[in-house]
Amino acid sequence: MANKLLADIPTLTPSGYEDYSRCARLYYTGALLGVAASDYAVTSTHGQLVHDMLWRIHETGSCRDMAHVRDVLGGHGAETDAVIRQIERHSERCPSSAVEDARHEYSLARFHRMPAPMFMAVARIDAIWVHDGLLDARDYKTGSRWHEQVADVPAAKVQLYVLAKVAQRRNLRLRLRYEYLSPDIDDDPDPWEPDDDDLAAIEEDLRAAVESMWAQEQWRGVGEADVCGRCRYRSICRDSATPGEPAWPVLALG
Amino acid sequence: MYRRNLSHPPITVRSVEEELPRVTPALLRRADDMCRRRIAKEHAGGKRFANRASDARFAVANRVVADARLAHAELGPPRTEAFVDPTDLEPEQRALYRAAVAGYLATFGAEPGRAADLGWRTVIEEQGVELLSDAGLAVELPDGRRELRQLRLSGNPVTLEPTDVFVALIRTRDWAPDDLRIVAVDLLSLESAEHIPDLGRERAEAFAWITERIELVKSRALDGRAQAGADCSGCAFIAGCDRHT
What is the CATH number of the domain that holds B223? Predict the structure, then answer.
């Protein structure tokens, strides 16, 4: 019944796959039903601003040129201490001075046809640097660190799956790094440099996930308090272990 | 060709005998950067050979608008009994529906009006193209004024982008020739934005805009080169795409 909501060729995004890995009901409610979040989540406004500024700074100059950085930030009303500190933190690890090619906020797609079922993986990559025979992809993070290594992050599989096609075509090694911009976080998680076996396993994991979606009848939620308690649908989810009243302002009218 | 629905005299419905090339607000807005093959396919219309895309995410919004239209079937305040709990939907969708209805009644519950049905398409004769869009909820007020209500369910702040206004002006050309208020409301956050256009000037601008954008869509469609990226998500024309062989 419910699996008929899937498109003939389902799309896998990093966040969608991350949701599905956490809870089938979360994926169902968000990605398929498109229900607006009923509960407050950590705001991404600051993170989006920093992403946008890094993009514009690199498009028009160098992140190591502080006059340029301040010029870009000032032009967008973003010259705050918090943003400047995070840009400085990035510049310590930015490989841009030695790169042969670079892309920022770059969307990639890769189609899986066989073995069934088909799916389309799509991901927007924050930065891609090509240097020293390496396709060095970065995912900028402005929040808290949750993982010791990128290989533990489900979303990274979708990112690497789409990146691998580019790396293979250009005969480059591939590395995905989660770059934490907060000065309060000393070390990034270990980057992931998948070999051919890893990439084959990633593709199979993604394929198996889509196969399990097609087998869903009920899209049952995990119903565990530690998972549900952080979910953006915790108040309205059919299977929530932490149900409550939605935070939609209209309901505050009584 | 025109056909009048006599039960709703003010409405003009254009009947389309054959399928014309089409544009949507998304195509008009994104034609500069969008995959040209997808533009070509969507502009040509006809999805007989396409892979089916998921449309479940519109179920609640469509239900709210349909029920609000029913609630305004006769001139007067909206009849609350028209909003029926959609038991065929999932519990999460029903929660969203109930919140949206509360938002609708909080915003428009005291305002009398009668709904009109603008359909889904307007033919742009000069371009030989049909514009497909959900115009919103069209309401005729007791004093004859026209109000177009664009209902959103995101919980986010609301803006009326130029594309929203231009498309609304074109879609309401026959229904609201002399008077129009466009109001966009997010039924969850209750934030809103409104625009009362200078119809003579702004409708002329809207037609100049859409003429230019349709020309762009046509030229990109003629190019037709595929580009793998964000537009592959939800694309109904994966089969035969040379970027995904």
Answer: 3.90.320
